[in-house]
Amino acid sequence: MKSIPRLLGTALVTATLFGCNDAPAPDTQKTATAAAVAQAVTANQTNPLLQPWTGPYQGVPAFDQMQLADLKPALEQGMAEHLADIDKITANPDAATFDNTIVALEGIGKALDRVFTYYGIWSSNKSSEEFRAIQREMAPKLSEFSSRITQNEALFKRIAAVYNSEQMAALTPEQQRLTKLVYLGFANNGATLNAEQKKRYAAINLRLSELYTQFSNNILADEENYALYLSKEQLGGLPDSLINAAAAAAASRGKEGMYAITNTRSSMDPFLTYSTERELRQKVWSTYYSRGDNADAQDNNALIAEILALRDERVGLLGFDNYSTWRLQDRMAKSPERAMDLMMSVWPAAIARVKEEVTDMQALADLQGDNITIEPWDYRFYAEKVRQAKYDLDSDEVKQYLQLDKLREAMFYVAGRLFNFNFSAVPADTVPVFHDDVKVWEVTDKTSGEHIGLWYLDPFARSGKRSGAWATSYRGYSNYDGVKNVLSSNNSNFMQSAPGEPVLISWDDAETYFHEFGHALHALSSKVTYPTLNGGVRDYTEFQSQLLERWLLTDEVISQFLVHHKTGESMPAELVAKIKKAATFNEGFKTTEYLASAIIDLKLHMLDDPAGIDPDAFERDTLTAMGMPGELVMRHRTPQFGHVFSGEGYAAAYYGYMWAEVLTSDAAEAFAEAPGGFYDKDMAARLVQYLFSVRNAVDPEEAYRAFRGRDAKIEALMRDRGFPLPPAK
């Protein structure tokens, strides 16, 4: 999380993270007084969550001093200080300028930034009932805080004065973009409304904050409170690596001698791929895909209906017909129609490929005399058998060459070749961490030795940690105040192996590992002047990370780092050839499950009046009308779609992965065509200069054209997926 000006600067309202509140109209409120701030400082002067970071590397978070008892007072003091700093800006008698208004906003909120770093760790990496109680209590207060900033008329007048003045022409392009982003962050989030409208806008945001918190906590509860415990007799088909991981998971839950399949994707996916116990596959599948949809206290359907109605009402106050139109106005897609056109250009080819895949799987099942009809809990299992039969490719054989530690070394190698980065392990106890699983590396320039930053890695699943994989930054680069030591992190949910055994992961998980590292490299490469410009445009920010996945299959990585965990021998050429030959295998499944989620997300937010909607019925009826194959479901079913309903970061924007994938495929072809291939020095330099270092200081379309010399083309995406090219328009 970042403090409010940063969020506004990238047009991501605080409501995106916290939702909103039934606050009184801003013109009846008074921001914090100096006396109130002084009192708060006196009461909390020793609160470690508020203190400036000390130690090496321009200071690091005091993760070893995190105490939940400090969180609420730290948030309250941080907000009070922040509002007092805004009062100083608005009280300035001088005419508004870029320096005394826009740059001044960039410089405040540092204490709250630090608190939000700890808040994010508790929220994502080490949640608990105690934290969630604080989260529920503070969500409306944080929302009110956001509203008091976005609806501060004096502040917005100063921002608008700079944005609409002649001085804009004298600013650098980077300064102009910063000013525009800050202005739009306010204008698009209620700053132009009248007093009565602002009051309702804030009230909507308050309620949304409560709903987002409840939605995410419901999902976490369904994940934490379930595990399927198996006996040794129920392990048919499971590879040793999964058996060992399941045994470790059971032991950690006090079930020694049993085997636990947890309600997370990293546990569910391999179980459905290998288990020969069809009834257990159905049970695991049903439990996973019914999260948030069990007609119980954790059911999310009513929450979704209310969220959609409130979002629609809120953008209606701003004059927009629907939420998606408001959301996409400053994205690369520009409009929901353009985003939908892209997805529907790919949809027919995707579902046609699913039909082919199911035909192959059903034929194999019939040949084996299994006497079944392929159901969703069978897809992964029979797809794996078809993969072996069609390509002589065994996923478990591939897994023997995918050691987590070696893959990390491979990522460091790629970063060294492309970005000239060197990673060296930081000795234990040098930098505080929030869990023993977390390790830290120092990042330096290979040539000059200049310090770039730190990279934190939290790789393993555990209770209280949200599912999935993600990247975050504890501190971004900002040249204007000399803070150049970036603190970046990657977080995963791999299952720990038995003691002394290497952690082996699937090919898909290896790609995800590279993907999230791409986000980290994007942060570490930053050379922007102002903190706000470290943000991004949602349908562009996945591009850099998706692109990095392509280096996993380069010869240099394969030969050096994809080595057998027992023999140490490199992956044999014939196995590599099989992987490449099967690169588009199961692409129908992967593309369709993703597109179904992205299309439902966008269609829900294109509704002119979502009031009273039944999310389950909408999902079912819409997918049926689109011809969704019955043998699979959405990657993220609506009641568990945390990207969209735990906040607003991906709301009406999940399509962005595919929009970014068009850029990815097109850029990958540029590397493939370069004289030096994927390690071509000139292409690498252009990559860093135009696509990584500028972050959001340059419009994404302009940045990509500077790199490629033209716009990206969808044909590269279709070739990548082995689909026929769409009809020419």
Describe the structure.
This protein is α+β, with helices and mostly antiparallel strands. Among the domains are: 4-219, Neurolysin, domain 3 (Orthogonal Bundle), CATH 1.10.1370.40; 226-289, no CATH class; 404-559, Orthogonal Bundle (Neurolysin, domain 3), CATH 1.10.1370. Helices cover 54% and strands 6% of the residues. The protein has helices at 4-9, 14-18, 34-44, 71-90, 98-106, 110-124, 129-150, 153-163, 173-187, 195-224, 240-252, 265-274, 278-289, 301-317, 323-328, 336-367, 379-391, 395-399, 404-419, 507-524, 538-548, 555-561, 573-581, 587-606, 615-626, 642-645, 656-673, 681-692, 700-708, 714-721, and strands at 227-230, 259-262, 421-425, 439-445, 451-460, 470-475, 486-494. The two termini are 43 Å apart. The relative contact order is 0.11. The model is unreliable at 1-34 (pLDDT under 50).
Strand order of the largest sheet: 3-4-5-7-6
Distance between the termini: 43 Å
Global morphology: globular
Helix count, per DSSP? 30
Strand content: 5-15%
Rg value: 25 Å
Query: What is the overall pLDDT average?
Result: 92
Mind telling me the CATH class of the domain at 4-219? Mainly Alpha
**CATH domain fold name of the domain at 4-219:** Neurolysin, domain 3
Query: How many E strands?
Result: 7
Share of residues in helices: 40-55%
